[in-house]
Each structure stands twice: as structure tokens, then as C-alpha cells.
Automatic annotation (TrEMBL):
Domain ABC transporter, residue spans: 2-193
InterPro entries: ABC_transporter-like_ATP-bd, ABC_transporter-like_CS, BCAA_Transport_ATP-bd_LivF, P-loop_NTPase
PROSITE patterns in the cross-refs: ABC_TRANSPORTER_1, ABC_TRANSPORTER_2
Coiled-coil residue windows: none
Record protein name field: Unannotated protein
A Pfam family this chain is assigned to: ABC_tran
Keywords, sorted A to Z: Amino-acid transport, Transport
Family: Belongs to the ABC transporter superfamily.
Lineage per the UniProt record: unclassified sequences, metagenomes, ecological metagenomes
Sample GO molecular function, one term: branched-chain amino acid transmembrane transporter activity
GO BP field: L-amino acid transport
Length: 193
């Protein structure tokens, strides 16, 4: 779903708009220029590049170097651990650090809609908690809208305002995250208790 919204896959029908921008048409770079950025599932950093070089990739299309420097500063404030590893190659980072780098690099493009695909995949529980809290912090401090696709349903619901539960690609239910957590039918069917 997120690959389609970010322009990586072509949609065959339907519509999805972010402001005036039709997300089901156009190339990924036009989506980024209109404020839509995607952190894909899995390995989404360039392993051979340093942390600093990976971050810089996120702002390549921006002409204003001062804004790019400010974005980098903001990303490093969100993820201080990356600041300690700026000259380190990405392939030497832990899984959690790579995920931080992927999110930080994506934030360099100054999105107003951030698409996150399974950010907790393969991470240790302590790191998952840190990533989720950072995502919530991004929403609160930067005012971004985040679309989070996540199999760790309870973790995602704890940080979400609104949630949509999909079952076989169709909307099974939606509403406030708090209401979905409190709903016995949702808990039994999707949260395992």
C-alpha cells in the first residue's frame, strides 16, 4: 500500500490525494517535492555510505543549503546516537541505528506526510519502544502526519491518534486508537487478547 502511495508501484484503480497532489499518479520524486516521503520496510540506507552521507541524500533535491543544514541538525536532535556516528559506514550500524538513520534521512526532505513501513521489523523490544516514542515525538514536535503500517498492532495503537485495521487489504474497522484498544472484538481478533 505505501509503495503505491509513494509512487513506487502503479495503482490500477481508485484515488488517494494529499492536498492537491494525487498520490496514485506521478513519480516518487514528484511526491517528495510535494511533501510526501516514504521509509520503506527493511534495508533502506545505503550501506557503503557514512551516516552523514546517508543523511545528505535526503536533501539532495533541495537547493537551500541552510535549510538542509537545519534539517540535519533536527534529525540529529531526534536521533543523538547518529551524531556520534557521522563518519561511520551505515553497514556497521545496528538494526535500530539503521532504522533511525532511514527515518532521519527521510526527514531531511522536510515532508508533511511521512509514510513508515514496518519500522519495528527485526528490532529488539527496547529499540522498538524507542523508535515508537520518536515517531510520536515527530508528530508532536514537527506537526507531521504519519501513516504507519505496522504488524506490532499494540505498539502502533499506543502512539497513534487514529487507526485503520486492514484485513486482507480491506478496511475491517477504523476509529480513534484508544477506542480500538478498548473494543473487545478488536482486541480478540487483532490484538490477541
Amino acid at each position: 500500500m505505501l509503495r503505491t502511495l509513494s509512487g513506487l508501484n502503479k495503482a490500477t484503480e481508485g484515488s488517494a490525494h494529499w492536498g492537491e497532489h494525487n498520490l496514485l499518479h506521478g513519480k516518487p520524486e514528484s511526491h517528495v517535492r510535494s511533501g510526501v516521503s516514504h521509509v520503506s520496510e527493511g534495508k533502506s540506507v545505503v550501506a557503503e555510505l557514512t551516516v552523514a552521507e546517508n543523511l545528505d541524500l535526503g536533501s539532495l533535491w533541495r537547493r537551500n543549503k541552510k535549510e538542509a543544514a537545519e534539517s540535519k541538525k533536527q534529525a540529529l536532535e531526534l536521533f543523538p546516537r547518529l551524531g556520534e556516528r557521522l563518519s561511520q559506514r551505515a553497514d556497521t550500524l545496528s538494526g535500530g541505528e539503521r532504522q533511525m538513520l532511514a527515518i532521519g534521512r527521510t526527514l531531511m526532505s522536510k515532508p508533511n506526510l511521512l509514510l513508515l513501513d514496518e519500522p519495528s521489523l527485526g528490532l529488539a523490544p527496547l529499540v522498538i519502544e524507542q523508535i515508537f516514542q520518536t515517531i510520536r515525538g515527530i508528530v508532536d514536535s514537527m506537526g507531521l502526519t504519519v501513516v504507519l503500517v505496522e504488524q506490532n498492532a499494540m505498539g502502533a495503537l499506543k502512539i497513534a491518534d487514529t487507526a485503520v485495521v486492514l484485513n486482507l487489504g480491506r478496511v475491517a474497522t477504523s476509529g480513534s486508537a484508544a477506542d480500538l484498544i478498548a473494543d473487545p472484538a478488536v482486541r480478540a481478533a487483532y490484538l490477541g487478547y
